[in-house]
Amino acid sequence: MPLERFGKYHRKLGPGWHLVCKPFESVSFHVTTREQVLDVPPQQCYTLDNAPIRADAVVYMRINNVEAAKYNVEDVMSAILNLCLTQLREEVGKLTLDESFSSRERINKELLKDLNAVTASWGVEITRVELQNMEPSPDILAAMELQMAAERKKRAAILKSEGERATLINEAEGRASAAVANAEAQKKTVLLSAQAEAERQRVEADGLKAAISTIAKTLSEAYGRGGYDGSAKEAVEGAVQFLSLIRYLETQAKFAGSEGTKVLMLPSKNSLPMTYGGLKFLLDDE
Fold first, then answer.
1. DSSP assignment, residue 120?
2. How far, in Å, CA of 153 to CA of 183, rounded?
3. Which residues contact 263 (CB under 8 A, 6 or more apart)?
4. DSSP labels for 168-191?
5. Strands (E), the chain
6. Nearest alpha-carbon partner for 127 in 182, 58, 72
7. Dihedrals φ, ψ of 135, to 5°?
8. Which of 185, 191, 163 is closest to 177 using CA atoms?
9. In a 3-state reduction of DSSP, which class is residue 24?
10. Which pLDDT tens digit goes with each residue over 32-64?
11. What is the Cα–Cα distance from 90 to 45, expressed in whole angstroms?
């Protein structure tokens, strides 16, 4: 605390007990060196795009030089308050409305730098400046709410369309994969059926070959013992005709057993799939 003698600064009083000679001496300024809080009331500000907004702040300060705080400025607290108000309006006026809501840290740093540049000569150190509230006018607030609602609807529509597109793409890919799998399955089925048919025909051909060989051999041996002097070629032809007769009779039997059969052609000399001479050759007892 500064002590004045006859109205002039004489000395600074520290903590503890001190002897003051009144009425010649008096304490002119009571202050603490601890950190203090200065509340800056809300005030009307205008952004760079002329949008009205109310802003307030909190200033944390510490008086380091009591003599300078008393004699370099008339009212240090009022001076700091008015300085903060003017600097706050200036900093808000440098930003647009959208930037002002996202630049609190920037405004705090600029206010701290500008205040310290002035209050250093007053013996005051500004330790921290915090911007508290920034409230736009009711009309701007309603417009901002409408804008936010429109943005939300836009994002929702975009997300919905992207989801529908993804669904269609997935469905198309699923159908394509199913078609490919179906084609592959049909391909394998056709291949397996063809292989099975080829194997069946090969087995039947082998069986037919063995049957013809066995019948021809049997006929050749049987008629050879009976004095028949026919060649091996004729024996084979007889075996083929014999097998054809068997197949023909089997087919006629299937037709006869069918429910839709109305007319049954009985075998005759002209309907048998063999020559009459061949049949005579097969049925000759000699």
1. G
2. 44
3. none
4. HHHHHHHHHHHHHHHHHHHHHHHH
5. 2-5, 8-12, 25-27, 36-46, 52-63, 124-136
6. 58
7. -115, 115
8. 185
9. coil
10. 778 889 998 998 888 888 888 888 899 998 888
11. 8
Can you tell me whether residue 237 is helix, strand or coil? helix
Both tokens of 266, joined, read 């009985």
For residue range 167-224, list pLDDT tens digits in order: 999 999 999 999 999 999 999 999 999 999 888 888 888 887 787 778 777 767 766 5
Q: Which of 77, 136, 87 lies closest to 108 in space, CA to CA?
A: 87
How is residue 231 written in tokens? 């060649």
Count of residues for the chain? 286
Distance CA 251, CA 103 (A): 98
Residues 115 and 221: their CA atoms lie apart, in Å, by 133
| Residue whose C-alpha is closest to residue 32's, from 77, 74, 72 | 77
| CB-CB contact of 43 with 54 (8 Å) | yes
The C-alpha atoms of residue 112 and residue 60 are separated, in whole angstroms, by: 10
- AA letter at 270: N
How far is it, in rounded angstroms, from Cα 137 to Cα 253?
A: 104
Q: Is the pTM of this model over 0.85?
A: no
| Torsion angle of C-alpha atoms 234, 237, 238, 239, degrees rounded to 10 | 130
CA distance 279 to 47: 119
- Cα distance between residue 266 and residue 252, in whole Å: 8
d(CA 108, CA 120): 18
